[in-house]
Write a structure and sequence with these properties.
Blueprint lengths: L5 H4 L1 H10 L4 E4 L7 E5 L2 E6 L2 E5 L5 E5 L15 E8 L5 E7 L5 E7 L3 E6 L11 E8 L2 E8 L21 E7 L11 E4 L4 E3 L3 E3 L2 E8 L12 E6 L9 E9 L5 E10 L2 E9 L10 E7 H7 L6 E2 L9 E3 L4 E3 L2 E9 L2 E8 L3 E6 L10 E5 L11 E2 L6 E6 L2 E6 L9 H6 L5 E4 L4 E4 L12 E2 L11 E4 L5 E6 L7 E8 L3 E3 L3 E3 L2 E5 L11 E8 L4 E9 L2 H6 L6 E5 L15 H8 L4 E6 L2 E3 L3 E9 L8 E5 L7 E4 L2 E2 L4 E6 L5 E8 L9 E6 L3 E6 L2 E3 L5 E7 L6 E5 L5 E4 L1 E5 L2 E5 L10 E9 L2 E11 L4 E7 L5 E8 L12 E8 L2 E6 L1 E7 L4 E8 L12 E6 L2 E5 L6 H25 L1 H32 L16 H9 L5 H7 L8 H15 ...
Parallel strand pairs: 18-23, 45-52, 54-61, 70-75, 74-76
Antiparallel strand pairs: 1-31, 2-3, 3-4, 4-5, 6-7, 7-8, 8-9, 10-11, 11-12, 12-13, 13-22, 14-16, 15-16, 16-17, 17-18, 19-20, 20-21, 21-24, 25-26, 26-27, 27-28, 29-30, 30-31, 32-33, 32-34, 35-36, 36-40, 37-38, 37-41, 39-40, 41-42, 42-43, 44-46, 46-50, 47-48, 47-51, 49-50, 51-52, 53-55, 55-59, ...
Helix pairs in contact: 8-19, 9-10, 11-29, 12-28, 13-15, 13-27, 14-15, 16-19, 20-21, 21-22, 22-23, 23-25
């Protein structure tokens, strides 16, 4: 706990020296704000940043002290000092009590100067970060005590911070503790409060009483009018009960309920308490703060109530002392009072960094306060001001993290003896030897009788103003010293403010006639008189009591006048801002003021402010009264120009920094209600971001500083040319935003000055660097991310530090004869050593079609806009550099090539010979295969594995949301309140069954921006399930919504109707078709469809299939074609299936001949073996693929066959090739045993990139071919050689495909499915009603609603219908078939060339025939007799009954309810506008029922 660490001991004086350079002596806390300051016998104590600093009087550091148990300054963060009490015990022992907010409010007792710790006790001071603590040390009966008042508990005004006292001590506010142990004891005194927490400002000792000024904590946050209070405690010995509460008294300082600073002034036997009072609400106004002075004896006498405290179980009403403010100001924060030459001097700190000095006369009137010092940063003054204990000519001023030592007087500014003495500054006097105004200590002959004259020698030291009433309605003013006056001004302050400038001067007095409206009978008449002579001036204020009759009738016997403070007010109530006299005056007022602009100006004044109101042209003698801090002479400004009846202008003079009262007076009557005019210091700049701009300008610049709200304009000054005035963008007083002007004449970078113009003054701000416009090199446009576009723009690196928010990028392209624009979103800007990249993205809608051949890309930054070219302009430079190198390489290559030409020619001949052989062979084999190959389709593939209706419907309704299958399959958990649950669902179901409600609901949802396509599809599926048993009603809703959709589409392109699934009705139609055609699908289409899938699988497995990529030699899809295959042959093996517990059927054939390929992997051989068992026996073997193994049985040995083992071939790249039948050299007739594995080992079918099968790595693909006839020759493979395999596959399955197609578009028994006939007739009727004569439109409608919406979905997804697993390869083949199916329904004639896709070419010759059949199908349906309504309803009713109890409809209803709740307000609003209140009430009832059930687990 002693001296600072050696590492820091040298640094502190350096910090102080640096802080004090060029200004007053100062000390700056390193990185922390000042929490507390106090003076002791020989220096200053400053606390902040969890540390205490002891400074010498000149603010040079002595030592730094860290509180006990802490690691160092700043630890723990947020710890604050709230008590510093130095005192001196017997024998001159210095003691310091220091309170800290950590550890529940710790107080430490230290002995000075070594700072040896005597005691450390918690729960002494407040531990709250902003809680108040005030204490005073006093001596009683040779013992020292601490009386401490603190906000131990903030009650409801602050969340508990873990440091609150126990509940029994929560209301304790004042305690008395012995210094030896700091324990609170009942016999010493414990004062408790009532319910409301209190905030204590100070603790004072006056004679045998202690005083604690405070206010209720709630005054900080509320519009609270109760005055602050002073608690008074009486000292008694411990045997007599210790410190006891005498009571408290209200301190009324004119409707101000907060105290911010306090000071005790001792003047001989008298004591005065000076407080700074603050309003608890509202913005900063000219009268927000005030200084009021109370006599200590009066306070002690009146303090008898205990409204706020608990006192012996009694509570008595407190009295109130009302004082008129001695001084009114807009932002006082601190006060310190002292007595010099028997005059009270007040030092005042403001919230904008000013130190003021006010001198009071014997009537407690203030002079015009002097600005002693002004902090450049304008930081608020700390509430504690202290005089230098060694040299009282200095005062310590604390603000933020800095304490300054300021002289108490600026005597040097007075140049003459008269000026020096007339200033009435008790600190200043005239030094006759030096002939200048100085402090007494600065005058060398100050001890001589005539060496230093102080204010006691001033000619007007006894000067006073005297009033007389010589006649009716007349007042006369004279000075107590007879001297000819040079000016005289009389002003009525209350009840209305009236200035009388036209007074009559008569030698040493003046008089004027008072206007009748201001003379009232309520004794609220306040008059102010200002007199000036050649050597002095004086202003005094008088309160006239019982003088109304005297003035009006000349009966003056009872009239008394009293000198009071200029801030006198007659208000008795905080809620009555004006007296009856004022109200009367307002009624007779001719002009009215609406606004004054601006109300923020600089101390330089304002050449023109505008006043807006009424009746200006009918008024005379218009003047503006500008009143600042009390004691200073107001400015009376005549109107400059009356523009019209509602506008006039004034010019305001320069003045000092403060908020002033401003009002307008006319016709010699009362002033308008005062407004606050803020005079602030001229603006200053702290920084600018960014500090650069491109020459073309238009960059948004933000300047940081203060008082920008008084700036008239900003000028960018370019020394080379002219100045530019920029207009301000929206900002605030600390930020100024503008766009940089263009320096079009500049060809290179330039530095310009930003200058602020305030009136006629130009204030330098910051420098702005102009750099050349950015250079964009080229761009890359990526269109493969369909539908999104990605754009990369490359630019040269520069010094502009451009951010992504500043860049605008757009793309233009031609759309017919019009130019369209697309604006990109800039994602980021990345900088590399050679260039920067701007990444942009644009999300295209599905309908956007861009002609990329006409694309142009533009970049815009402010005023700068440039087209970016797709290729770099530097490519030619690169070509010139690389050309010599390339020429040299060509020459070398030519020499080498010529040298090896013979060898290359020989090798090329061999390669061409091999390639020719391979092509001939493949073409011959392909031709033979097309003519001779047949597919051995299994005649009986057993029972078709149809899915049940529930799973079929769920997979169709939710193709991408598999999770709903399990949700709709589960039963809803039963609740105890089943009736209530059913009621909520029943009401919702009934509401949905209301056609008007449901249609309105769907339309409202679709208009919401965040109701996505996915949401629309889900909602349609939930609705289908909820109305599964009401298909008639669902069909009716489908009709209504389809008609509404046609109304939307008919105005654009009717052929696009139902083409996509972007609305609820389109998904609803898909679901409706699925429900209504499920029976037709199962009975008619299912068998040929399953035959197609099975046949495809057989065909694929007939040839080689790569186990890694699943590509096959036989396929329909070119993307899945295995063209890298080598020669292969079929191997017939005998498979023995051992008996297993899972399959003990006696009828099962256990030995089966299976055809495999020598290129099959062991896993593929397993698959073919299990399939052969199924085909032979009609049932499964009983084990999964990874549960069985294969074992080669021979006379020599039995060997397990594995895909990977020790004998596997390893390629050069470390890739291992899977073992095949050929690898194990298995020949025809070999015997292989199928056995059950003992342990489930690694799967044989999933391999990583470290394995290969038929598609070899590039390093292996060009090795020499093995085999006789081509020894040493390399193999060549060309994909196009194997395209005949696609055709052979198509031929092999062609009959099956045609059977499936014709089963779909045929009419068995000349009858169409009811759903198809009904919906096609509905579309025909709609086309007729809309007068659509183009038959192609109706054809497209039918195609979009049935084949495109339903059949293609089924053809591509057999797993929707059957219990099978669809492989990616099968999916690719089915896509080719589905494409051919859709082409059959298309009206567009296809023109295919040689470069057309193979999937189009495969069925190109078949499509014309299919189209004829489709048109005949559509015609046949149209020619069928129309269905009656009863037939349709009967069909739908039967379908509804089939699907009863299939789904848990409550789940679907609840999902629908979630959408309703999400957009509840929008739905209610729409219903109210279109449907009335009946549906709204029902919906509100449904919501109320569901809200009641939120606690249920199932909800």
């Amino acid at each position: 706990m002693a001296a600072p660490p050696p590492a820091l001991s040298w640094a502190l004086p350096l910090l102080a020296a640096l802080a004090g350079a060029g200004g007053p002596q100062s000390f700056e806390l390193p990185g922390a704000r000042i929490d507390n300051i106090e003076v002791s016998g020989g220096g200053v104590l400053v606390a902040g940043g969890s540390c205490l600093y002891e400074l010498q009087p000149e603010l040079r550091p002595r030592r730094r002290v860290v509180p006990a148990g802490e690691q160092g300054c700043g630890e723990p963060p947020g710890m604050r000092s709230n008590l510093l009490l130095p005192y001196e015990e017997a024998r001159g022992v210095g003691v310091l009590l220091a309170g800290w907010t950590q550890k529940d409010g710790t107080c430490e007792v230290w002995e000075q100067p070594a700072y040896r710790q005597r005691l450390n006790r918690s729960e002494v001071v407040s531990c709250l970060p902003d809680g108040s603590t005030a204490g005073v040390v006093f001596q009683l009966a040779d013992a020292w005590y601490l009386a401490v008042a603190a906000t131990y508990s903030a009650g409801t005004y602050r969340d508990r911070l873990g440091c609150e006292p126990s509940q029994s001590d929560e209301t304790t506010v004042i305690t008395v503790r012995g210094i030896h142990n700091l324990q609170s004891q009942e016999d010493l005194g414990i004062i408790k409060r009532q319910d409301e927490p209190l905030h204590f400002v100070d603790a004072l000792q006056w004679r045998d009483h202690l005083f604690f000024p405070y206010y209720r904590l709630k005054a900080r946050w509320k519009n609270y009018t109760e005055p602050p209070s002073m608690a008074v405690l009486r000292q008694q010995s411990p045997s007599q009960g210790g410190l006891t509460l005498q009571g408290h008294v209200y301190l009324d300082c004119g409707c101000r309920s907060l105290i911010v600073s306090s000071s005790l002034v001792r003047q001989g036997e008298q004591g005065w308490w000076v407080g700074v009072f603050h309003q608890s609400h509202g913005a900063k106004a000219w009268n927000a703060t005030a200084v009021c002075i109370f006599g200590m004896e009066e306070v002690k006498k009146e303090a008898c109530g205990a409204t706020h405290f608990v006192r012996n179980g009694e509570s008595s009403e407190a009295k109130s002392i009302k004082k008129l403010p001695t001084l009114i100001h807009s932002g006082l924060m601190a006060v310190y009072g002292t007595v010099v030459l028997n005059q009270i001097v007040l030092f005042l700190g403001t919230d904008d960094g000013q130190l003021l000095k006010a001198i009071l006369n014997e009537d407690m009137e203030s002079n015009c306060p002097e600005v002693l010092y002004e902090i450049k940063e304008e930081t608020s003054i700390f509430p504690k001001l202290r005089l230098d204990p060694v040299d009282n000519n200095y005062i310590y001023l604390s603000s933020a993290n800095k304490v300054r030592r300021i002289p108490v007087a600026n005597c040097g500014r007075y140049v003459s003896e008269q000026e020096c003495l007339s200033a009435k500054d008790p600190y200043c006097g005239w030094c006759s030897l030096n002939q200048r105004c100085t402090l007494k200590e600065n005058c060398t002959s100050s001890n001589s009788i005539k060496g230093w004259y102080n204010i006691s020698h001033a000619p007007d030291k006894d000067l006073k103003v005297v009033l007389r009433f010589p006649a009716k309605n007349q007042v006369a003013v004279a000075a107590s010293i007879s001297k000819i006056l040079t000016s005289c001004m009389i002003k009525i302050v209350k009840p209305v403010e009236v200035f009388y400038e036209n007074v009559v001067l008569k030698n040493s007095s003046c008089f004027c006639n008072l206007t009748a409206p201001v003379i009232t009978d309520n004794d609220c008449l306040v008059l102010e008189a200002s007199l000036s002579s050649s050597s002095w001036n004086i202003t005094q204020t008088f309160w006239l009591k019982n003088c109304s009759r005297c003035i009006r009738k000349g009966e003056c016997t009872s009239c008394k006048w009293t000198r009071v403070s200029p801030a006198t007010t007659c208000q008795d109530s905080c809620n009555a801002p004006a007296s009856k006299g004022i109200a009367t005056a307002q009624k007779t007022e001719h002009i009215s003021i609406h606004s004054i602009e601006p109300l923020w100006i600089s101390t330089l004044g304002k050449s023109e402010i505008t006043v807006k109101g009424e009746n200006f042209t009918h008024a005379s003698g218009i003047k503006l009264i500008l009143t600042g801090i009390t004691g200073c002479k107001p400015d009376i400004i005549k109107v400059r120009n009356v523009l019209n009846d509602t506008q006039m202008t004034f010019a305001l003079p320069p003045t000092r920094k403060e908020a002033k009262s401003i009002c307008i007076q006319a016709n010699g009557k009362k002033c308008s209600p005062p407004m606050t005019l803020h005079y602030v210091s001229p603006p200053s700049c702290f920084g600018i971001t960014p500090n650069t701009s491109w020459i073309s300008g238009g960059r948004r610049i933000t300047t940081i500083g203060r008082n920008f709200n008084v700036v008239d304009s900003v000028i960018i000054s370019d020394d080379q040319r002219s100045n530019f005035t920029v207009s301000r963008r929206p900002g605030n007083e600390s930020e100024y935003h503008y766009l940089t002007p263009s320096l079009s004449h500049a060809t290179e970078g330039r530095v310009v000055d930003m200058i602020l113009k305030v009136e006629t003054t130009f204030i330098p701000c910051v420098k702005l660097h102009y750099h050349p416009d950015p250079v964009f090199i080229n761009y890359q446009l990526h269109t493969e991310l369909d539908p999104d576009l990605e754009l990369k723009i490359y630019k040269e690196n520069d010094k502009l530090n451009i951010s992504k928010t500043e860049v605008e990028v757009y793309l233009s392209y031609m759309n017919g004869s019009q130019t369209e624009k697309i604006w990109f979103s800039v994602q980021n800007i990345t900088k590399k050593p050679d260039r920067s990249t701007i990444l942009c993205k644009f999300k295209r809608e599905g309908t956007d079609k861009i002609d990329f051949s006409t694309v142009k890309v533009f970049v815009k930054l402010g005023n700068f806009e440039q087209e970016v070219k797709p290729t770099s302009s530097h490519i030619y430079l690169y070509v010139l550099i690389l050309l010599p190198i390339v020429v040299g390489v060509i020459i070398v290559a030519f020499i080498v090539t010529r040298y090896k030409s013979k060898e290359l020619t020989r090798k090329q001949s061999q390669q061409l010979e091999l390639l020719e052989y391979e092509i001939r062979k493949e073409i011959r084999e392909g031709f033979a295969e097309l003519q001779m190959d047949e597919l051995d389709v299994v005649d009986s593939f057993g029972t078709v594995p149809f899915l049940d209706y529930k799973h079929f419907a769920l997979r169709t309704f939710f193709p991408e949301s598999g999770g709903f299958a399990s949700i709709f399959s589960e039963d809803m958990p039963q609740s105890r309140d089943q009736t209530s649950q059913d009621e909520s669902f029943n009401m919702l179901h009934a509401l949905i069954c209301n056609k008007n409600f449901l249609v309105t609901l769907i339309h409202t949802l679709e208009k919401q921006k965040n109701f996505s396509v996915k949401d629309r599809c889900l909602f349609a599926s939930f609705l289908t399930i909820a109305l599964q048993t009401k298909l008639v009603y669902l069909t009716h809703i489908l009709e209504v919504l389809t008609k509404d959709l046609m109304e939307q589409s008919s105005n654009v392109q009717p052929k696009l109707l139902l083409r996509r699934t972007e609305s609820v009705v389109e998904k609803l139609l898909t679901n409706w078709m699925s429900v209504c055609l499920s029976g037709f699908l199962r009975e008619t289409i299912g068998e040929p469809f399953y035959l197609l899938v099975t046949t495809l699988n057989q065909r694929i497995n007939k040839g080689p299939v790569d186990a890694i990529t699943c590509k096959a030699l036989y396929t329909l899809n070119e993307d899945w074609l295995l063209w890298q295959v080598s020669e292969f042959k079929t191997v017939t093996v005998n498979i023995i299936f051992e008996k297993i517990p899972e399959n003990e059927s006696e009828d099962a054939c256990q030995t089966i001949q299976v055809n495999v390929l020598d290129c099959d992997t062991i896993g593929q051989a397993k698959e073919k073996s299990l399939q052969a068992f199924l085909n032979k026996n009609g049932f499964l073997y009983g084990l999964q693929l990874d549960e069985i193994g294969l074992e080669l049985v021979s006379e020599e040995q039995q060997r397990e066959l594995l895909d990977i083992d020790g004998s596997s071939e390893v390629m050069e790249d470390g890739i291992r090739k899977l073992n095949t039948i050929g690898h194990y050299e298995i020949s025809n007739g070999a015997t292989i045993k199928v056995f059950k594995k003992k342990a489930n080992t690694r799967s044989d079918v999933d391999y990583s990139d470290e394995h290969c099968h038929l598609i070899l790595p590039d390093s292996e693909a060009n090795k020499d071919v093995k085999g006789a006839g081509h020894k040493g020759k390399q193999k060549f493979k060309v994909k196009e050689m194997y395209l005949t395999k696609l055709l052979s596959t198509k031929v092999a399955i062609h009959s099956v495909v045609e059977k499936l197609f014709r089963s779909i578009w045929s009419l068995p028994n000349n009858k169409a499915p009811v759903a198809i006939k009904y919906f096609f007739d509905f579309l025909d009727a709609q086309a007729e009603s809309k007068k659509i004569t183009d038959p192609d439109v109706v054809h497209i409608w039918k195609t979009n609603s049935l084949p495109l919406r339903f059949w293609v979905n089924i053809l591509k997804n057999p797993q929707f219908v059957f219990d099978i697993k669809k492989t990616s390869h099968i999916d690719g083949c089915l896509s080719v078939i589905a494409q051919a199916f859709m082409d059959a329904f298309s009206l567009t004639e296809q023109t295919l060339g040689k470069e057309a896709p193979t999937n189009k070419l495969l069925y190109a010759k078949d499509i014309p025939l299919y189209k004829k059949e489709v048109k005949a199908y559509y015609k046949a349906i149209r020619d069928l007799p129309p269905l009656t309504t009863s037939e349709v309803e009967e069909f739908l009713t039967q379908e509804s009954k089939k699907h009863e109890n299939e789904f848990n409809e409550k789940v679907a209803l609840f999902e629908i309810y979630r959408y309703i709740v999400k957009y509840y307000d929008e739905i209610v609003s729409k219903l109210e506008r279109e449907r009335g209140f009946e549906e709204v009430q029902k919906l509100q009832q449904v919501k109320a029922l569901f809200d009641e059930k939120k606690k249920c687990k199932w909800l």
